[in-house]
TrEMBL record, chains A, B, C, D:
Enzyme class (EC, first level): lyase
CDD domains (UniProt xref): DHDPS-like
UniProt family annotation: Belongs to the DapA family.
Enzyme Commission code(s) on record: 4.3.3.7
Matching InterPro entries: Aldolase_TIM (IPR013785), DapA-like (IPR002220)
Protein's UniProt name: 4-hydroxy-tetrahydrodipicolinate synthase
Gene3D superfamilies registered for this protein in UniProt: Aldolase class I
Pfam families: DHDPS
SUPFAM superfamilies registered for this protein in UniProt: Aldolase
This protein's UniProt keywords: Lyase
Gene Ontology MF annotations: 4-hydroxy-tetrahydrodipicolinate synthase activity
Species assigned in the record: Methylobacterium persicinum
């Protein structure tokens, strides 16, 4: 079943596990999928930036997609961002045939004007085909492409196959409110809005009306709980849990290979990954950074026992 | 008399002459103004990038403006691009009181979305005051801000005091045609369009309907002639003259301090400037570059005797 | 007494108070200076980005500097970042004559190569004069200029008047460790390193060996305490206090005019500023954002009574 | 035989011919290869930006490479620039097995510091394998990555498989002189330097010591002649020919899809391509632009009969 604008909840951005020698670790991949299912997420996104997609060739990428899609009944979204529409189309068609629910597309950082951005997504939507639902990724910090709410509305309106926004603008709270306002005033059809950016503002984003989270935080359980507690109107409880995680979350959310190194380290510590190896170019945690992470986890574990990891 | 959208012809961007020790050379400044008047230009732009405006402090900048405005009856446009609206307002008010015809404003390179660019010019127009006519500078290559024709129309429409476009987009021919089309279809009021970019496409830009040139080419006589010949429908003659200049023009139009060094060198060779000194940070011509410029001038002089310079 | 590399502790980045009609509010300015002195900071930085320096003209900027310098015996650092070296020199000389302790310089976002960045600071140091101590601002997120530790070492080595680094790279912990390592291995003379970036990583930055904080957090008391507790080896207490502030701190640290709006709002709530007005272009807090800030302050006040503000 | 630093002469950047319906036009592809051979070029570069590489998927790209390599005995260089090293490696290995002479790599526009650029090329060279000769593309205008001569020397020194520089910096003449100086003073091994940038400065670049041209100008005969005439010391003849082409060359060298549209149009007019179709996203020549090109060709044909095209 293809992705629709009804998707909500938590859709983790999955890292890709490697053996220390660089081969894809399929056992860990399976374990991660099972783990995500077990904690009650609502879907999975693979082959995003966090998944080191650029370090997999086409065959490897499609192999990962096939394995994940084959193992779970959750909807799987596949990152198909590519330098050209031909490669994007090719990957999108391949993974949709395997049973992916939809694809995610980020804009190239060379786009400047509103017209250029809108044209890009029209061309992308045409390239992958109108039957392939796609997620619009709005992440100016990483992609250097700024989209106003009005531009997002335009993209959504021009492309019926755009069903979800991965919102990770920063600051971004008013943007969410504006977009939800467009829906209420009838100027934009409803789309799903799930937030990224490591979840750094999930506590308030959830209150502003987003449908969930689509990010790579190493404790997706917290994302699930915060989204649920907010939906249930239990504001203080949501913030209490979120705030307990925030010192570590902030540390994890450092941009680039360091943030990935932290996440993989914690996945290893949690027994999900056998190794925290990255493919090259990679960045490893220094001993001091490792100590800092352990310190943060120990402090978190005082409040959230799920962070209590065996020595 | 303030600048209006009726301005047309050639408005050179003036460099600022310095003594070798860095002091402003007022004698050369006067000589340049007289020289420009003598070759039949229609105005002057001072304190632009080419005028090394950033290397003058406020007192020096206003002194240059006062001297130029006091010496010529041509309309003088003053560059007031500044990092903040307070400094922009301050300089704009000062030079308008001295008798400047208008000011020129370039967008800061941090602007991205159409809305940001439009807001910037609304704020700038408000800061300098609605009585101060301004020139909108559209130079993506240098300023990294891309403006579509529709965005320019929006800026023109939102700001009655915007009377002229300094067009230096590249490629830019279709942009001119589109803007002139907006005027014809009544969706934009008429503004003056003068071209910059060293004049690299003046031959065709003039045919596309611009009103003239607003650039720092070291032989403004050529710009004057090409604009006139095109207006008179003498296409082949216009191109013959332009093409003769093109090898040197292209050399001069190299971006940054090198292009300025070439122009100052030629101004010195033509007897307009006593020295080709730049203020620091500066770039001088190497002996090989000097030889190349001399070679190009000698070749040009075969066709255009105005390039025949005394050894 | 001029700034030296011995500066340490907390040096707040001061906002500039305005009346609702846009005039500078000198009473609030005085009150802020007194307040900073009262909480035990070690210096003040004025006319930075947070101080809306671009919205003050030269006369206003120097008037603010004169008033602040005249009122406090703390060392005052003045932001002199400017589009050209002439304006930078002019402002630097003016404020040093008034008794400023030093100046702060950020690189223009057009710089790319290591050589360009190094040349820029050589030229800047020469422009302001070798007797004027300066703070090197390393803030890639805002200025788009990336400096490796080796490049910072080069700038420090080439410019004896560079006495302090305002470190706000992100991620930045390993950078601090590398720079301190350069000092230990003798390849770089010791400089002061104070951190910015809203203090988002101050807890660990303090442990990594920085000398303090140079940022605009609205509760500088917390910065003072965390720096002190860390220096005293009371790690858990430092983190307990920091973590209590983090949910609000993260909210305040949103980039651009929003972050400034939050800080000014809290300064008003704390009775330091009479108004939270910004000069245009400005951004005000929406009612929902105001509610979010109040909610965060109320939660913070449960742990830190200094955040308990009168209704 | 693999590419070495002995390559010199003219190596055109080849466009890719399409049928109007978007299919690759293999007949035109063959005709182009034969045409290039016939005019005496020294190699071919395919799947570069000009070749619309991003609009071909992996299978199409390798099919084009196979066909071109199979048809010519000239060395064929293949663009393998990719968002990740896995795809780069995969394409590089594939085309080298087919008999390509080497590959061309451009840096991603996210790189900033010298260290980042150097690390990128070390990683790229390792990814494709030390046995694959590569061309370093230095094109700041398009790729936004600035490399000083010292950085290029570092890349050349760190990567024995880097055998050629595609030089298209602008301004760039002094850079060539500096690099050749490095070779003479023994601080850099000799590499081939071929120039791009549409050939806009080939006349002087050839005099500065480059080995030839590696660009997509629609009359490669001119490039061949200018390189040869300069090598033979016939300076005035070289410039006479170059200057005759310059008005059209400048028009063709407009950045982006417009420049490609002009080249394809002229290839069609010359009978090399059956169609000037681009794959989407594309830009077609307007009637006015077509008239301008025809006018320029007619003027050029007065001097160079090779530009005399059948009506």
């Amino acid at each position: 079943m293809p992705l629709t604008s009804d998707i909500r909840g938590v859709v983790p951005i999955a890292p890709t596990p490697f053996h220390p020698d660089g081969r894809i670790d399929e056992t860990s991949l399976d374990r991660m999928v099972d783990y995500f299912e077990g904690v009650g997420v609502d879907g999975l996104t693979i082959l995003g930036q966090l998944g080191e997609a650029g370090k997999l060739d086409h065959a490897e990428g499609t192999a990962v997609a096939r394995r994940v899609i084959g193992r779970t009944r959750l909807p799987v979204i596949v990152g198909v961002t590519a330098p050209g529409f031909a490669a994007m189309r090719s990957l999108a068609r391949d993974v949709m045939e395997m049973g992916a629910a939809g694809v995610m597309i980020a804009p190239p950082n060379t786009l400047r004007t509103d017209d250029q951005v809108a044209a890009y997504f029209r061309n992308a939507a045409e390239a992958i085909g109108p039957d392939v639902p796609f997620v619009l990724q709005d992440y100016p910090l990483t992609f250097s492409v700024a989209m106003t709410p009005a531009l997002i509305r335009r993209i959504v309106t021009e492309n019926p196959s755009c069903v979800m926004l991965k919102h990770e603008d920063w600051p971004g709270l008013e943007k969410i409110t504006t977009l939800r306002g467009y829906e209420r005033d009838g100027s934009m059809r409803r789309i799903a809005i799930l937030v990224g950016n490591g979840g750094l503002f999930l506590d308030f984003e959830a209150e502003r009306g987003v449908d969930g989270a689509n990010t790579g935080y190493a404790f997706p359980e917290m994302l699930v709980d915060v989204v649920r507690l907010t939906r249930e109107g239990r504001r203080d409880e949501a913030h209490d849990l979120f705030d307990a995680h925030l010192p570590y979350l902030r540390y994890e959310q450092q941009q680039g290979p360091l943030g990935l190194a932290v996440r993989k380290y914690v996945f290893k510590r949690r027994g999900i990954f056998a190794s925290d190896a990255q493919r090259k170019p990679s960045q490893n945690l220094t001993p001091q950074a490792t100590e800092e992470v352990e310190y943060l986890l120990a402090r978190l574990a005082r409040t959230d026992p799920r962070a209590r990891l065996p020595g």
